[in-house]
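Suppose a colleague, Dr. K., hands you the sequence of a protein chain of 478 amino acids and asks what its three-dimensional shape might be. Before reaching for any lab equipment, you can write down a predicted structure in token form. Begin with the sequence itself:
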Amino acid sequence: MASTTDANLEKYFKYIDDNTTFLIDQLRDVVAIPSVSCDAKYRSEVIRMGEWIKTRLEGLGARVQMVHPGPQELQGQTVQLPPVVLGEYGTDPAKKTITIYGHYDVQPALKSDGWDTDPFTLVETEDGRLVGRGSTDDKGPVLGWILCLEAHQKLGIDIPVNLKFCFEGMEESGSIGLDAIIRDQADKWFKGTDYTCICDNYWLGTTKPCLTYGLRGNNYFFVEVSGPAADLHSGVFGGTVQEPLVALTRLMSTLVDIDGKILIPGIYDQVAETTQEENKTYEGLSFKNTDLIEDLKADCVIHDSDAETLKSRWRFPSLSLHGIEGAFYEAGSKTVIPAKVTGKFSIRTVPYMEIDTVNELTTKHLNAEFAKLNSKCTLKVSADKAGRWWYSSPNHPNFVAGARAIKRVFKTEPELTREGGSIPITLTFEEALKANVLLLPMGSANDGAHSTNEKVNKYNYIEGIKLFGAYWAEIANL
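The predicted structure, expressed as tokens, is then:
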């Protein structure tokens, strides 16, 4: 079995190397579809992207079902949510079954945002970058799975596992409707899933592949302070009324200090303590503060230690202030006193912080601090969407298979990492399908997802497609 696997993989790897132009042209085709999910005027393009995937999978002999989540109110109009594309290839009871998730929608992008080139025209640079919106997040990985399946077929290599695909078009806008679909289809379309794999994250650095076994959750808050019925002129009313923006900025300053410590009483009580064994996992990783400073183009990093920076990103909670709605923010000067302002902030949560407890502690703190101001304004605190943290074991067979696949392709052991961001659907898959989830990244740390000049390195894209095939083979050999 091992020799057959080795021969098939070598054959597969050679095909990928010999067909890089075709593989990049395929990525160029999908990047050209501006599937921006947060803007109503692009909704037809998001749906077109879903149809492209459906046609491509059906062309490879997969059974496909389009699940339509329903309508959505967006920017003052009713539009249809993009379809969730469910695909199935293979139903051999003797084979293990993998469910693969990805998303085909992207963040907004305009050349005027600061892009060097048209964001929806893939450009291959001389230094090996494939630049275009969605190239790394998440069209490159989604396409990679499809191209992996196609390559096996062209080579006459038996697919060593059964495949179930779940590709959505609303990830960048909150995955509206997906949770319900996954739970509804857990004993239907997804029945029999042994393992789940998500490729929607990145290497820790730029030189070494990784496997990800932990994500932070996210609680989002709005703090509304209101005063007069309408905006006021500061020359007439300044010094005569209590101003909502003054009260709000005082409140927001009580949430976190300059070095990132959350000031809400009791917020750290739920956080798991680090162990000596865990502390060792931060040693020898490729991450360096100096690289971070170079990427930021500014030395505003809080911690001197590389390990402490990673702990602050991965396994401790953080609180970030995001903005103030209702306050004057345009260029120039304006002497207005806003009648109502809304502060926005979020708390990234870690094991074993509970959503409800975080909401309760935060609301209690803000109400107590507001009372100290003796303000005649009114306060309203509301908790918006929340996603839970996720943590797995890197010793699980799914991770073992991923590590072996990385060793085959990259000739090195993977780094085992956690991430500071959130992919809430990870936990939904794990709970609904009762199957372990592996985060298997294709892109590198400096790809600039959500930013200008987003890219995936040609190296990561091509070797990533190889990795997907190796992962299937290693799952089959468990």
